[in-house]
Design a protein that fits this description.
CATH superfamily of the largest domain: ATPase, nucleotide binding domain
Number of strands: 12
CATH class of the largest domain: Alpha Beta
Strand content: 25-35%
Structural class: alpha/beta
Order of helices and strands: EEEHEEHEHEEEHEHEHE
Helix content: 25-40%
Radius of gyration: 18 Å
Number of helices: 6
Length: 232
């Protein structure tokens, strides 16, 4: 299976093509950035496709991150994924950013629990907690940092995500300290691709859903630009 993976949810613009038969990405590119995804993504995808030496019709599936992430960034990636899927007549799937952060740790089959966390601002995080084998301990949610820290009850965790350091710096003194802290600005595109290959298109729609409503609201005839984070 050839999977085109796309991630524009956080502070990177990334795409890669996974060949599941070879068990590796045959082409990839990641550019760190906080803004400018809309102008960068399609040329980046074109370079990745050219580097892989294939056409869009050769793809079997397109995968894109669905959140948590920036309101605008998510739509850039999802719109591109849907457009390519429509033009190439291929299925498209969504992959959560929290799952993509956690996947490499779960893949190592470690025993410690894994807490995947993304900064939601206002002293809140988007987070989920899983056992070392991937079983859900806490479902994805947005919550005060204090609530995320209460996951220390599951034991010394492996912290991942762009809020991993935030949690580590405020970890309860009475609790066993984290076994590892993987602060990352964005998930590795290879894991977006592998998760995209593993999920069912029927069970993983390519659309954002919200753990909290956008802060901004239309006022009169003026549409304010939302600045909160979407999650899925």
């Amino acid at each position: 299976m050839l999977v085109l993976a796309i991630d524009t949810a956080l502070d990177a613009c990334a795409a890669g093509i996974l060949d599941t038969d070879e068990g590796r990405l045959i082409a990839q590119e990641t550019l760190p950035m906080k803004r400018g995804h809309a102008e960068t993504l399609m040329p980046l995808i074109a370079r990745v496709i050219e580097s892989a030496g294939i056409g869009f019709k050769a793809l079997d599936r397109i995968a894109a991150t669905t959140g948590p992430g920036s309101f605008t960034g998510l739509r850039v990636g999802l719109s591109a994924a849907r457009g390519i899927a429509l033009a190439a007549d291929k299925p498209v799937v969504g992959v959560t950013t929290l799952a993509a952060f956690a996947a490499p740790v779960i893949g190592e089959d470690r025993k410690p629990p894994v807490i995947s966390a993304i900064d939601a601002r206002h002293d809140q995080v988007y987070f989920q907690a899983m056992s070392g084998d991937g079983a859900a301990l806490i479902q994805p949610r947005v919550a005060p940092v204090a609530e995320a820290l209460a996951a220390s009850r599951f034991g010394a965790p492996h912290l991942v995500g762009n809020a991993a350091r935030l949690l580590a710096d405020r970890w309860p003194a009475h609790a066993p300290p984290p076994v590892a802290v993987d602060q990352q600005a964005a998930p590795d595109i290879v894991w977006v691709a592998w998760l995209g290959a593993a999920v069912s298109p029927d069970a993983a729609p390519p659309r954002p859903y919200y753990l909290r409503a956008p802060d901004a609201r239309p006022t009169g005839d003026t549409l304010l630009k939302p600045r909160t984070l979407a999650a899925s």
